[in-house]
Amino acid sequence: MRPSEALSKIQRSVREKVLDSDAIVRDLFLTLVAGGAALIKGPPGTAKQTVLRSFARALGVDSGMISCTPDLLPSDFIGGEIMEKDDEGHTALSFIKGPVFTNFLIVAHLQQLPTKSQSALLEALEDGKVTSAGKPHALPQPFFLAATITTQDEKVRYDLGSALLDRFYIQIETSTPRLATESMLCQIASVGAGDNRSASDDDNVFARIPEFREGARSVAVPESVYLAAVNAVRKLRLTPDEFVGPSPRAATHWLAFSKARAFVEGRASIAVDDLMATSRTVLPHRCFGRRSMLTEADLVGAIDEAFAKI
User: Fold this and answer.
1) Enclosing domain of residue 282
2) What is the pLDDT at residue 157?
3) More confident residue, 306 or 135
4) Which domain CATH number covers 239?
5) Coil, strand or helix: which one is 271?
6) What would the DSSP string read from start to end of 94-105?
7) Where are the beta strands (DSSP E) in 151-259?
């Protein structure tokens, strides 16, 4: 199965649950192939978790879930050490794994994750492991994390550190669905719907992800494209009076995401056009206003201007 065929198969499957989901599924699939993590941000009730669960089922992988609350502790999702007795009556510490130990992890309501727990999630994103009682524990591979941020939720909201947000390759924005999509969601909620994973389909897409990731890494990046990505990120960073621009990591993630895009489309190298097509997905969540809140239009305008200057 070619990557493009796998993507089309997943899009068809998720579309049975959520109309107008093709673009979201495409970006999730590209992030998975690139080896990154994804954010989905939008108002309540816009099918963010439904899309992610359907995406996991279409891939053929079981998903784990962490629902963030203001009192969530790292041990609630990492797990912890407990005393156990063996058959001979000897006691010893045993590590009990938490829900983070899965191949596909959904983190819901990330904006409610306390700072201490953010650091534990950061370790999982950066190192592919977690630490409990001073001992590291590797996460299953391949590992994919997708988090949701619910806007219009101001009751309890923690500031998400730039170090954490910078680990997410992309941020997908959702909005109130159109009439047909909203009607479909209401119907599914009222009468239910079957599993969107076909039992007769022997092609497990998730099992091919290591192969797809290796193929994406082999996509060539011309020097001119490297320079375009680095210069655009630097241009965004050199605007101290307006906002804090993206870190050097942004260019790395940007190129990796663009390489995954080229690989899925069957191309052997990427071009500046790939950067332009993905810039508004990869860069805005890495920029922060210094004196006031920046609108999405402000960020998009700054990104377009940075491209115009290189």
Assistant:
1) 210-310
2) 62
3) 135
4) 1.10.8.80
5) coil
6) EEEE-TT-SSEE
7) 170-173, 243-244
